[in-house]
Amino acid sequence: MSWWKFFQAVRRGEHKVSGMTWFTAIATVIYTISPIDLFPELLFPIIGFADDLGLWGVTLMLLNREKMEWEQSYVRAPGVVDVD
User: Fold this and answer.
1) Is 6 exposed, middle or buried (0-12, 13-18, 19+ CB in 10 A)?
2) DSSP 59-78
3) CB burial of residue 9 (10 Å; 0-12, 13-18, 19+)
C-alpha cells in the first residue's frame, strides 16, 4: 500500500491515528521551524541539524507503525466485498 492511500484513509476517518503520533508530528514541525532550538544550527551546525533529523526519524517511525497497523486492518477487513 502507498503512503498516499494511507493519508487518504486517515483524512476520511477510516484509520484513527494515535494521539501520541499526532503530538509528535506537530511538535516536530514546530520545533523544526521555530527559531528557538536546543542546539542552534548557527552555533552548532552538525549537531543542530542532527537533533532536527532525530525528531523527524522518530516521527517517521511512529507514522510507519500507524501505516503498518492500517495495512493489517485493511487486509483483515477490506472495504469492498466481491460477491459472485
Assistant:
1) buried
2) HHHHHHHHHHHHHHHHHHS-
3) buried
Q: Which amino acid is at 52?
A: D
Residues 35, 53, 32: CA angle, nearest 5 degrees = 20
- pLDDT per residue as tens, the chain (84 positions): 789 999 999 999 999 999 999 999 999 999 988 888 888 878 888 888 888 899 999 999 999 999 999 999 877 766 555 465
- CA–CA gap between residue 3 and residue 5 (Å, rounded): 5
Measured CA to CA, the distance from residue 28 to residue 68 in angstroms comes to 21
Give residue for cell 483524512. 11
Could you list the beta-strand ranges (E) of 2-84: none
